[in-house]
Amino acid sequence: MNKSTNQIRQDFLNFFKEKKHVIIPSSSLVPNNDSTLLFTNAGMNQFKDIFLGLKKTKHARVTTVQRCLRTGGKHNDLENVGYTHRHHTFFEMLGNFSFGDYFKKKAIMYAWELLTSKKWFNIPKHRLWITVYEHDDETYKIWNQTIQIPSERIIKIGDYENHKYNSDNFWQMGDSGPCGPCTEIFYDYGKNALNSSSEFIKNENHRFVEIWNIVFIEYNRISQTQIISLKQKSIDTGMGLERISSILQNVNSNYNIDIFQTLIKSISQFSKVQDFNNISLKVIADHIRACSFIIADNIFPSNEQHGYVLRRIIRRALSHGYKIGIKQHFFYKLVPNVIRSMGISANILKDKQKKIEDVLKSEEMQFSKTLEKGLQVLNKEIKNLDNQILPGEIVFYLHDTFGFPSDLTEDFCREKNIKIDHDGYQKAKKNQKNQSNLKKPFYKNYNNNIFFNDSCIFEGYQKHKTKSIIKYIFVKDQSVLNITKNEVGIIYLDKTSFYAESGGQIGDIGYIYYKKSCFIVEKTKKYGNTIGHIGKLISGTMTVNQSVYNKIDKLYRSSVSLNHSATHLLHAALRNTLGDGVVQKGSFICNSYLRFDFSYSKLIDTFHIQEIENIVNVQIRNNIFIKIKEMSFEEAKTKKATALFENQYKSTVRVVFISNFSIELCGGTHAKRTGDIGLLKIISQSSVASGIKRIEAVTGQEAINYFQKQDNNIQDISFMLKVKSFDMKEKIKKLIHQIKYLEKKIQEFQKKENTHQVKTLSNNAYDIQGTKVLIHTFYNYDHKSLRVISDQITEKLKSSIIVLVNVTNNHFNVITKVTKNLINFITASSIINMIVTKTNGKGGGKKHIAEGRGLNINIIPEILQNIKIWINKKLKNK
Questions:
Q1: Any known ligand binding at 564?
Q2: Would the annotation count 518 as a binding residue?
Q3: 443-552 maps to which CATH number?
Q4: Band of the pLDDT at 75, cuts 50, 70, 90?
Q5: pTM for the full model?
């Protein structure tokens, strides 16, 4: 007992190395072989295709320490982090795997030996309890007869509501994929020995903690109702490093193990909190680990997908820092402590420490500007609650305006015993989405998770036209035998010339046809290992098993290919100019332009943009032959090929060589020579997220069109300015100077006009029992000046009620002010409500000041007269 966490990790690997397992490095937190997963959430993710029989492996036995993240979907631990002893966003999963080698008996024996033998973890046998799937008699007998676990300590776990294969002890990766019965090993934290299964099932005070899950991968779940047997039986195990460390270090919480205590103590130094059991300290310690490893895998904060998850975790940590009184920027300063505490697992962090710190610091500075204001709004709303439920529209307002995810708001409310209205939040979110979304074409609504245990041969590198057989047809998300004229659907073929959207490159368009039947392909996408041709049948009928021809639009493909080759040149030029820290974060390549996203934290000035353009265009003028080779991944690494993602690749990869200037792994289509590109022009650069830049560019004829359009604009502007084009800059400078001078004069005149209006209107205010009342309508008056006038009149008249309306074109704005000595009788917001409710307007504010606007200007005189009567009545009765 009492081994360090880093030693426990190494002991696990050493044990399975002795058992002839090959140690495989952890894969990236971003899986590249599973579109259903946002982040790697289990040790088996990188081996999914091997389990399914879609990919062969060199090693029948492997062991790993896998970086995992659980923040959403089925495995969502985020809201529990810090509040329980065991939940984390980031954790390390210890695993051993067998692919068609040993199965149930050896997997169980290995686990038992590691956990209980004196040479290894030496856990007392009487502290271990076992669960098995109720219908898995073989596993029960191994535990009971071979390992000799008493029957009272082996718990059979059945199916929910008698639905077969729907049990806590029938493991499945998700809604589809490899699955099978499992057996779990639990540790008993209790002081007194128990042999009662009922006590285990109750598990009061979390006495029993699951430490190891052994999954017998026997099946593939196709859907909720369909499961098929796999040809090869395999073993998938998982044991959380943090959990087993808490047992071996004799502590009752993962947060009390050595690596967490090191982090928690360093965090406490930034605050006044010295209680190391403080929830916020635990949350921050967990989240700094998660953020460091996510950024190390080249994910940056953004408002989409992986980046959004990272941003949520960062903001949750910063908010907890605020709760314990940390007002300085601190989060990025914790990265060195993560590296020191994590042992060999921190190797991926060491080379990227500065980048991780820079990203966290930038995000921290950005969020800190809105955090305090958002919390002020939240606290104010909580004070005004009539019950213990925060309305959903407030939760959404905090999310939309201040970047507070709903779970972050829920964290703050939880400590005050306030619940949030989740349904109301989703409704407000949906309403905004409905207002902002444009109606999308029908074919884009097809389910991207359609999965066939099948494949399609792509012949499009060599052929533009292919004879093929229709294997499947989908219409309105349903599999059908035929498709008729004017129906929209997806056609799947046994082989195709159509390139499916991948690697940022848009899919091909073209035709599938035979005799008088013709299907227009408007989009091509991947569905697992097969390819879907999405479009519309414009003539005839097509049926499953029919022979057809498929033919791509060659001009369209050529334009896309030119842009793809130009993207490779651009990537290399960026790295040459800005440094090797440039990492591709995404791209979009179509027939008309290319878009390239990459990691870079600094500003890119015009000089560097022009330098990048020049480098690319030199390579284009050199008319270099673009060479494409297939080779082993190991050979590609020796060629120093750029791999776009730090994930696993197939054993054979496709490498695109543009001389020695650019060497990249790529499955896309390309030009034959760089000279075919003609010309590249960068048309925009922007920042799409913290530390992420975006460049858009055009090539060839599109670049020429861009220059001609720019030239036409310059000629039009020079004509309007009545100067030659090379004199435009000086002319514009003079005009700007003149405009500033005139604006200054206007401000002076406006100030004088405002002073006059204040004097005149103050004299026209009438008195009711010592209160001055002023109701006045302006026409086409400056709105900012209206606010100035209202402030100055209020200050001059002291006890007063002011209503100022400004009518402009077909709408109006209104400002109301009520001095604070009157707000118990009359409020500015109530006056605004009387106006906007009758004029199709909007408005609001506080008791002493409010503003509004509306459209129905014709009834303004009548409304103001009624308000005048209402104010008189209120004041006389006060």
A1: yes
A2: no
A3: 2.40.30.130
A4: very low
A5: 0.58
